[in-house]
Amino acid sequence: MIPFYAVFDPTYILVIVGLLISMAASAFVNSTFKKYDKIQSRNNITGTKAAQFILEKEHINNVGVQQIAGDLTDNYNSNTKLLSLSEATAQSTSVAAIGVAAHECGHAVQDHTGYSPLKIRAAIVPVANFGSALSFPIILVGVLLSWNQTLINIGILAFSLALLFQLVTLPVEFNASRRALKILSDGNILTEEEVPMARKVLFAAALTYVAAALATFLQLLRLIILFGGNNRRD
């Protein structure tokens, strides 16, 4: 039987803090995007056209650009070589949309140039997903089996893979934004006055990844406090 303290305990504050951080980061990126989505670029280029222009300029000929449903669902898939832009980005000529499109192109450039952290992140994805899915069941089984510390530690280690993925993701995302801003600063897509606006959008987006890493760390810390070491309470 799971001890009462493991269900109702003060460490829930860590989960709540992580949730609040994630919510704040999400609200910030949404408000920032909406602010600069109202500012149309002087060159009147859509997110799709900007992405195609950047890929051509970087001599990347094996990546396709497609539109997908949703808002801020933009992504680049290195396996399929597809750069997917959300409806809010693909057909918009706003500074925000072009910034986001350029960021995803930054990932395509990373893939094209063999950027090591991107390769590492891709390799970690299946392991991290596997660890995240099984960590809590393993910990639960360990508790039910008379507090089997070995199983519990394996579960905690499995969950830590999710944090590892988040940490590897940070340099990948920040590097993609740096590449995007460098490309946009040449003036062919955004003007000199518009680039700082795109920088603010990308910075806000980057904070969501920082928030995700902090939230995952706080969850891991809670697991360690509750179940790590010799924390069995009879």
Short description:
This is Neutral zinc metallopeptidase. With 234 residues, this protein is mostly helical.
Task: Output the keywords.
Neutral zinc metallopeptidase; membrane; 3 strands; transmembrane; transmembrane helix; 234 residues; Zn_peptidase_2
Q: Please, could you describe this protein's structure?
A:
A 3-stranded mixed beta sheet has the order 1-3-2. The chain is built from 8 helices and 3 strands. It has one domain. The model has no long low-confidence stretch (mean pLDDT 90). It is mainly α and 234 residues long. This is Neutral zinc metallopeptidase. It holds the Pfam family Zn_peptidase_2. Keywords: Membrane, Transmembrane, Transmembrane helix.
How many domains, in number, for the residues?
Answer: 1
Q: Tell me the radius of gyration.
A: 21 Å
Please state how the strands of the largest beta sheet are arranged side by side.
1-3-2
Mean pLDDT: 90
State the total count of DSSP E strands.
3
* Structural class assignment: mainly alpha
- What fraction strand? 5-15%
Distance between the termini: 11 Å
Point out poorly predicted stretches.
Answer: none
Overall geometry comes to elongated
Largest sheet: 3 strands, mixed
Secondary-structure topology with pairs:
Elements: H1 4-7, H2 12-37, H3 47-57, E1 64-68, E2 75-77, E3 82-86, H4 87-90, H5 95-113, H6 116-144, H7 149-184, H8 195-227
Parallel strand pairs: 1-3
Antiparallel strand pairs: 2-3
Helix pairs in contact: 2-8, 3-5, 5-7, 5-8, 6-7, 7-8
